[in-house]
Every structure is written in C-alpha cells, then in structure tokens.
Amino acid sequence: MAEPLFKVEGLKVALPDMTRKPLIGRAPMVEILKGLDFELPRRSVTGIVGESGSGKSTLGRALVRLIEPSEGSILFEGRDIAHLPEPELRPLRRNLQMIFQDPMSSLNPRRTIGAIIAAPLGQNGLGDNLDARVADALKRVGLPVNFAKRYRHELSGGQRQRVGIARALALSPDFVLADEIVSGLDVSTQAQILTLLERLADDMGLTVAFISHDLSVIRRLCRHVIVMKNGEIVEQGPTDALFANPKHAYTRDLIAAIALPEIDADWLKAG
Amino acid sequence: MTACLDISGLSATLGDGRRILRSVSLTVEPGEVRALVGESGAGKSMIGKAVLGVLPPSVRIVEGSIRLEGQDLGALSPRDRRRVIGAKTALIPQDPLTALNPSRRVGPQMTDRLVHILGWAGDRADRRVRQLLDEVHIREPDRVMRAYPHELSGGMRQRVLIAAAFAAEPRLIVADEPTTALDVTVQKQILRLIALLQKEHGTAILFVTHDLGVVAKISQKVTVLYAGKVVEEADATRLFADPRHPYTRALMAATPRYTDPFASLLPVDETVLAGLAAEIADADRRWEAGHG
Q: Any chain B CB within 8 A of the CB of A258?
C-alpha cells in the first residue's frame, strides 16, 4: 500500500485554559489532545467523529498547522511539519486547505465571491488568468460563473458552502480539512453538498479529513473513521468494519444514539 | 373531546404583505406529541411563536384562529391572552444558554414563572421545582439551583429548562428544536426525558424540529410544513411507512442512514420543488381571490 499522506505519532496539543487564567500572569495549560497515533491514507476520505469537547476540531487544526502541537510528529508527505516555522510552512499551505462549518462567517461580506476565491490564488503564485481560474472553480462546484460578481448575503446557505469548497479547491490541494461543513444545512442541501464533495474528492484524488458529529453522514462518505473522546482516539479503522463490529463501548453508544427516520418503539428505552 | 391546541386556517403576513403562514391547520390532542417538521424558513418556529403569543412585531396574523382548550386566543384582550397562555403553556427552547439569564442563578429563574405568573408562594414554588429537578434526574438540586447557567453543561441546562417547563403543569408545551444543539448521546437522554415526563404528566407537546429522525422517535402525529403551508399530515406510523406527498418522500430520501450507506443521497429534486411552487401559487391565488 502506498505511503499515507499523513502519518501522525504521539500528537499532543496543549492550549491555555482561559477560564482558569489568573488576573496577572499566564493561564495554566490544559491538554486537549493526549497523544494520538493515526494515518490518513491518500486519495481517501477519513471521518473524524466525536462529541463536543472530544478534540476533533483541534486535531484538524493541528493537521493544517493552524496550531502548533506541544509534542509528537505530523509527517506530511514524509516530512515532519509539527514544528515548522511559518516561513517554511507557507509553501505547504497551498496543499493544506480547509472548508469551514459556517460559510457565513468565513466569507468576507464586503468582497465579491470572485475576489474571495481569487485571494488565495494570488497569494500562492497562481495570479495569472485569475478570471478563468475563478470561473473554473465556480463551475467545478456547480455555480454559475456570474456568481463571481455577487456578495455573500445574496447566496443561500448551500451556495455559500459551495463557495467555501470552490475557494479551497481552486488551489488544487492534496489535502482538504472539512470541519462540520454540513451541520448547519437542511437535509436537502446537505445531500447536495455531500454528493458534490464525494464527486470532487474522487475526481481530484483528494485526501480529506471529514470532521462530523453525524455518524450516518460519516458512514456514507468516509472509507476510514477515527472515533475520538476526551482528546484520545478510542477506535479507528475501515468504516465498514467499524460499523459492522464496533469494538469500543463508546462507539457502540454513539451508533445506538443515532435517531434514524424510522419508527422504533424500543429505541428510546434502550441504551 | 376538545383539542388541547386547535389551529385553524392560520395565515400570517410580513410587513410587505407577503404570506409566511398559509392557512395552517393542525390540532394537538391532550397528552399527544405532534411533530411540526420542515426545513429552515418553513415557518415551523413561527407557528410555535404564534401559539405562545410571542410573534415578532413585523408578523401579523391576518386570518384563522388559535384555540387553547377551546378558548380562542384572538377573541381575548391582550392581557387575558397573556394570562391564558401563561397558565396553559410552556416552552422548551432550542438553546438553553440564551434562554437563561447569564447573570442570575438558575433556581430563581425556574421559580419565576410559578411565582409571578401563577401567583404561587415562594416556598411552594421552590418545593415544586426541586421535585421536577428530581424527575429529570438531577441529583444535587441545591447545587444546580445555586449555579449560574455557565456553570452547567449543555445537557444539564436543557434538563433544567425541561424541569421548569413541566413545573407549572402546563396543558401544552411548545418544544422548539430542543435537542438540535446537543450531542447525539445527550440528545437521546433528553428525548427520553421529555417522552417520560410527557407521559407521566399527560402533557400535550407541539414538537418543532427539522430532524426526521427525532420526529420518528418522539411523536405520534406529524405535520410536514413547506413555505408556511401544510403539505402532509398523518400518524407518525403511517407517515414513515407510507409518505404520500412527494416532498415528504424527498425529505426522507435526502436523510442519510448509517444502516443503508449505499442508498443514493438525493436532494429534493426540481420536479418536486416545481410541484410545491405550483401548489403554493395556487393556494395564494385562491387566498387573494377571497381577500381581494
């Protein structure tokens, strides 16, 4: 099997605990990720699931080096990026893209959609043929080219999330972090965005870390799953196997807590 | 039997005259849970707000009636309406953190309603709230009542609000997306708690949600709403076994299920949307003809 895109060992992240910060002096550190080992296979979508406070978003942010880990290594393409300083990270940033949960707050309201998609292109030395590149990016996510002239508020929730995807993919990255990108959406829009991401990941050979609290969505989209709880990985493996035979009690609890759209009088009583 | 809640032909408009509720009719029988389900903008929360008498000032009810245990709210003076709504209904809100005042302890916020609206003595209200905290499995009522909202977890805050809602023995509870902000395991506990208290107290619930999974687990009756119009109404068992409106079927097809990962995940398609648009245009034409 090919070398994984990411190989992570002993990853720890500690952040200052602002709720316990004394009036003067530093806040005490609290460990958010407590030593994680995992790999992200190439050209495959890996789901990261866990409840709030499990550390799944922190994990994503460490992968794209929005935060620096306190310990451990993050091998990306065989190179440890865990402690790279920003100037050395910058050339890698094009390859480490992210799509956020809330496109409303991640898209600048005062810039046109075209300018929003163009900005990272310019910064990454792809400033030639900007209009054509923006048009391609829009077409790729199924938006009309004239959307480049519009503003955030003129778009629906689903369209805004498409713009978020277009912006991330315009740079043709190898890796995309998708952090709860469908959780604020209606089911119909969610279905559109999921099928779009599924198709694009396939077409472009993307490696995706798909963070979600929704196991039904993960089951649908991801080939591998990492289950997190309290900053630790409790279980990981191929999605099929994990759902067929969940080994950890917490995984079983999570699966049992999914409310399927089916009548089941015993569901509320069980578990 | 008189319905606990009887909404009949309810239409509401925004300031510009646009209808946001289109002749909505639904009933909630005593002791029954009716789910009101739809996508964002369908008007489901608006109906809950209308029942509780807290519509935003820009929304005007232009036709139809809301009856609580037979009493027509529209026929009452604003003062009497508030009194009836206060005595007969309660709300379980979506976000317990915004529903609770951050600068006050939880206990007094729970007894407020009993003391100020129902006129109970302070110690009676206090006893009642403790009893309900016990029913929602809060082991340390003293600590919780002395706590400020931020000192409690999300699930704990939602328990507190459920206890507060049931404390005054309302006939009807409007639950507005009460589990949407919660983790799945906490959601299940909260749904179980609502179902349990609902049965024990014989309370009717209008359960507003966008989540068909939650609908299937909590409700006996379902009303499906699209653009302020009821598109399907049925017993929950029938609705999930045999959804009849194309939109209901489309919503179900759009919902992923871990048990069926290879089913094609389809958004509500153009044909269904066109059909809905035609239904709404037709309803609006007839309404305008009657109100020209």
A: yes
Distance CA B78, CA B81 (A): 5
DSSP symbol at A258: -
Give the list of residues 6+ apart from residue B149 with CB closer than 8 angstroms, or none.
B96, B97, B100, B101, B102, B106, B157
A267 touches chain B (CB under 8 A): yes
Residue whose C-alpha is closest to residue B227's, from B282, B146, B288: B282
Distance to chain B for A156, nearest Cα, Å:
11
Question: Which of B221, B278, B220 lies closest to B246 in space, CA to CA?
Answer: B278
The position carrying tokens 């999570």 is A254
Hey, are the CB atoms on B191 and A259 less than 8 Å from each other? yes
Which whole-number Å values give the CA distances from B242 to A143, B93, B207, B256, in the listed order?
Answer: 35, 31, 21, 18
- The number of residues making up chain B comes to 292
The CATH topology of domain B5-290 is: Rossmann fold (3.40.50)
Query: Phi and psi dihedrals of A233, rounded to 5?
Result: -90, 120
Cβ A177 vs Cβ A64: under 8 Å = yes
Per-residue pLDDT tens digits of chain A, which is 271 residues long: 578 999 999 999 998 888 888 888 888 899 999 999 999 999 999 999 999 889 999 999 999 999 999 999 999 999 999 999 999 999 999 999 999 887 778 889 999 999 999 999 988 888 888 999 999 999 999 999 999 999 999 998 899 999 999 999 999 999 999 999 998 889 999 999 999 999 999 999 999 999 999 999 999 999 999 999 999 999 999 999 999 999 999 999 999 999 999 999 899 987 6
Q: What share of chain A is helix, strand, coil (3-state, %, to 5)?
A: 40, 25, 35
Q: Encoding tokens for residue A97?
A: 């893209």
Query: Would an 8 Å CB–CB cutoff place B104 in contact with chain A?
Result: no
pTM summary value: 0.92
Count of CB atoms within 10 A of residue A271's CB? 14
Report the DSSP beta bridge partners of residue A167. none
Whole-angstrom CA distances from A156 to A104, A185, A238, B59 are 10, 10, 35, 23
